[in-house]
Structures are given as structure tokens and as C-alpha cells.
Design goal:
- By secondary structure, the chain is an all-alpha fold.
- The chain has two domains: 5-52, Arc Repressor Mutant, subunit A (Orthogonal Bundle), CATH 1.10.10; 67-199, Tetracycline Repressor, domain 2 (Orthogonal Bundle).
- The chain has eleven helices and no strands.
- It is globular and about 55 Å long.
Length: 210
């Protein structure tokens, strides 16, 4: 009796979750198909019903890691920035860095993906753009796209660097610094708006003179 489409979907997700975790911990070269399937509780024979190769799985794990991230379920709150603070607090956390939360492939595959094939790097590129898009929904409408991109890279880089360190106190300092810098960027006005506000303040002072 053939497996149902639901069973196949569940098996695929188990493989992807296993691959995401193992690739994050060991990198592409150290992780075998057998390790991924054993960790997923499935046989090696089931692998090729879902993926054509380890490279294919690696690329799909990047895509899966972004689309299944808990970050996408955080509802934006408009101009209040509460949801942004929640998002970066979750991402730039010791739980994430220390592997106690689902790993973001953008951060944990960062040192590995540059030497992979074009399809993998294309997938990584799209994933970064996707994360920037998610982050952008939690920033003020006036926020410039370049600033949102910088905030995204600061998030990813903060986790990537922190995960490589052995000094826990330094990890905490880096993560706190990244969180603070992102919030400062979000709260800062764009140059044009800042100039307009400065002009208004100057005019108000002139009108207020006796």
C-alpha cells in the first residue's frame, strides 16, 4: 500500500529538521546522508524519495529553516517596535546561539555556504532577502530598505560570530550590543525627516521669540 501524501510530507519535514540541526552543528562535509536519516528515525532508502543528493538537501534545509522559523509567526505591531524588540530578542539570544532553539541557517551555515555550488548560494541569497523582508514588516514605514538590510546582516552576523566563541560573557556582550544597535537604527529618523524636524524646531523657536 503506497504511503499517503500526508505521510510523505511528514517524512520530508523530519528529514529537513534533522538536516538543519546536523548541518548547523557539523557543516556540510561532516554530515552524511546516513547521519541525517538516522537522526530523523528513517531509513537511507527513504532519502531519495525526497531529495536527489546531499547538496539538494542542503539547499532545501536553508529554505526550510527560514520558512519554518518562529520569527515569521510574530505579528507586527506597526510603529510601536514592540514586535521588533521581541523578534531580535529571540534571534539574538543565547538560546539561539547555544543551539537550544531552532537554528537559523543564515547564521549557522554562513562559514560553509560560500564554497558550495551555485544553487546553494542562490538559495542562501533568497533566504537572506526573505529574512530582511520579515524584519522590514516590524520596522516603521519610513525605514529605508538599506537600513533594514543592515539590521538583518547585523542580526545574522551577531549570531554567527557568537556561536564560534568560547567566552560566554563575550557572547552576551556581542548579542546585547547587536540588539541595542538594531533598536537604535529602528528608532532613528531617516536623514530627510531629521532635517525637516530640525527646520521646524528652528522655525518654532523663531516664532516663539517675543
Amino acid at each position: 500500500m503506497p504511503y499517503s501524501s500526508e505521510h510523505k510530507s511528514q517524512s520530508r519535514e523530519r528529514i529537513l529538521n534533522s538536516a538543519l540541526r546536523l548541518f548547523s552543528e557539523g557543516g556540510f562535509e561532516q554530515v552524511t546522508i546516513d547521519k541525517v536519516m538516522t537522526n530523523a528515525g528513517l531509513t537511507r532508502g527513504a532519502f531519495y524519495a525526497h531529495f536527489s543528493s546531499k547538496e539538494d538537501l542542503y539547499a532545501e534545509a536553508i529554505h526550510h529553516g527560514i520558512n519554518s522559523s518562529a520569527l515569521v509567526s510574530i505579528p507586527p505591531d506597526g510603529e510601536g517596535l514592540r514586535s521588533l524588540r521581541q523578534l531580535i530578542g529571540s534571534y539574538l539570544s543565547r538560546a539561539h546561539v547555544d543551539g537550544k532553539a531552532a537554528p537559523c541557517p543564515l547564521a549557522f551555515f554562513a562559514t560553509d555556504v560560500g564554497v558550495r555550488d551555485r544553487r546553494v548560494r542562490d538559495t542562501y541569497t533568497v533566504a537572506l532577502q526573505s529574512l530582511a523582508g520579515v524584519l522590514g514588516t516590524h520596522t516603521p514605514a519610513r525605514m529605508q530598505a538599506e537600513r533594514v538590510l543592515a539590521m538583518t546582516v547585523l542580526m545574522v552576523g551577531g549570531v554567527a560570530v557568537s556561536s564560534a566563541l568560547t567566552d560566554g560573557a563575550l557572547k552576551d556582550r556581542i548579542l546585547a550590543s547587536c540588539r541595542r544597535s538594531i533598536m537604535e537604527m529602528a528608532e532613528a529618523q531617516p536623514p530627510k525627516a531629521a532635517r525637516k524636524q530640525a527646520v521646524r524646531k528652528k522655525q518654532d523657536k523663531q516664532y516663539a521669540r517675543p
